Amino acid sequence: MQGKATLLKVYLGESERYKNKPLYQYLVHWLKEKGIGGVTVCRGIEGYGADKVLHSARFLELSSDLPITLEIVEVAEKIDPLIQEICAMVPKGLVLTSDVHVYKHGKE
Amino acid sequence: MQGKATLLKVYLGESERYKNKPLYQYLVHWLKEKGIGGVTVCRGIEGYGADKVLHSARFLELSSDLPITLEIVEVAEKIDPLIQEICAMVPKGLVLTSDVHVYKHGKE
Amino acid sequence: MQGKATLLKVYLGESERYKNKPLYQYLVHWLKEKGIGGVTVCRGIEGYGADKVLHSARFLELSSDLPITLEIVEVAEKIDPLIQEICAMVPKGLVLTSDVHVYKHGKE
User: Would you say residue A107 lies in a domain?
Assistant: First the structure.
């Protein structure tokens, strides 16, 4: 993969669950099974979403529900068919794409 | 919100302050008051900015001044009116936008 | 720098090395020497790349090889000449660019 590609970014909460697993871990596993070439998961230190509840590493009681982001970079043909399923798995999250230009991907 | 939107990203230093508060915390609060639908704050482990001073989690003395990023995703009409005010609050930081396509945002 | 610019993002593994240094630290130093105006390095908590090996902060044995991202924002004329060299230094990683609009950069 080189040239035009799609960056898919998903924002969700660390405590969200899906099928008895943390949602972000479920998504990583699911994306790997779908043949997606890579996923990067980051944890934020603070944030709020549509419900306007502030989550922060500064608040002990909410520190286990920090913001999580997942990033996937793939050709559009591999990402587009998955977006609706991802949206359904992420009821409270944010799902977006942007156009990127890939110069190098893995061992190519 | 679905379709075309703007991702606003702000890069600043953890130790920057504004009105007696850490700047990034002030910004989160301020953006919430302005009706912005969500903010995600991340802390980096290393970096430098315009002054070329390297901040790193490896250096104890600078570990309380690590890079901080804020991400906001909204329709352009809600973000554009705030950008000049944000720039004024972030004297040493980097403020940028990019075009994104939103598939899902919160509980819609 | 204001107006159109390029965001360069590099994804690599924390344990990758280059010339006896952690690769991401080498890159930060190298980019600074090349006159790049700023770099932000983040560490993820989980992820996999082209080799499909899952790295996670949950697995002690792989926790020292978490995903690392570097972000650089510059005018295209300063980034473009560096991309092939960066790709050569990052054999297993992902290197991409996207278009951004910069409103503020450093002390301007």
Answer: no
Does C97 contact chain A (CB < 8 Å)?
A: yes
Classify the C-alpha dihedral B35-B13-C55-C31 as positive or negative: positive
Number of domains into which chain A is organized: 1
- For residue B88, give how far its alpha carbon lies from the nearest alpha carbon of chain C (Å): 9
Q: For residues B95 and B93, give the distance between their C-alpha atoms in angstroms, rounded to a whole number.
A: 7
Complex ipTM: 0.94
**Are B98 and C103 inside 8 Å of each other by CB?**
no
Is residue C107 situated within a structural domain? no
Contact yes or no for B100 and A95 at CB 8 A: no
- In tens digits, chain C (108 residues) has pLDDT values of 899 999 999 999 999 999 999 999 999 999 999 999 999 999 999 999 989 999 999 987 766 899 999 999 999 999 999 999 999 999 999 999 999 999 999 875
Give me the CATH number covering residue A8: 3.30.70.120
Q: Identify whether B43 is part of a domain.
A: yes
What's phi and psi for C81, nearest 5 deg?
A: -65, -15
Question: Which residue range is the domain that position B89 belongs to?
Answer: 3-102
- CB nearest to A98's CB, from C83, C90, C98: C98
Is residue C108 assigned to a domain?
no
* Predicted TM-score (pTM) of this structure: 0.96
Q: Cα separation of A42 and B59, whole Å?
A: 22
